[in-house]
Amino acid sequence: MPDEQTYTAHLVDDDGVETRELETIGGLPQKSFVLSVERDGTTIDVVWELDPDGDDVIYRASSGDGYGEGGVTAE
């Protein structure tokens, strides 16, 4: 896949910053996405939303167990 169809996203939460390569949609960064993560031995789905005020492509966790409202536990 050509580089212009991907970008580096910075996922920011209380644990720090993680980077991931994501695919663009229509040449633009995704507004949000879901990522399954393990927390204390339990897999949960966390919704990451693009920070519109960020200087870079920064995403912040908007939901998930331990991330505020609406955590969804994967089974």
User: Helical element count?
Assistant: 0
Question: How large a portion of the residues is in β-strands, by DSSP E?
Answer: over 45%
Percent of residues in helices: under 10%
Distance between the termini: 32 Å
The tally of domains stands at: 1
Q: Pairing-aware structural class of the strands and helices?
A: mainly beta
Overall pLDDT score? 82
Poorly predicted regions are 67-75
Major sheet size, sense and barrel closure = 6 strands, mixed
The Cα radius of gyration reads 13 Å
What is the fold's blueprint, element by element?
Layout: E1 6-13, E2 16-23, E3 32-39, E4 42-50, E5 58-63, E6 72-73
Parallel strand pairs: 1-5
Antiparallel strand pairs: 1-2, 3-4, 4-5, 4-6
Give a description of the structure.
This protein has strands at residues 6-13, 16-23, 32-39, 42-50, 58-63, 72-73. The protein is mainly β. The protein has one domain (3-73). β3 and β4 form a beta hairpin. The radius of gyration is 13 Å and the shape is globular. The N and C termini lie far apart (32 Å).
Q: What would the keywords be for this entry?
A:
75 residues, mainly beta, globular, single chain, six-stranded mixed beta sheet, 6 strands
Compact description:
This protein is mainly beta and 75 residues long. Helix content is 0%, strand content 55%.
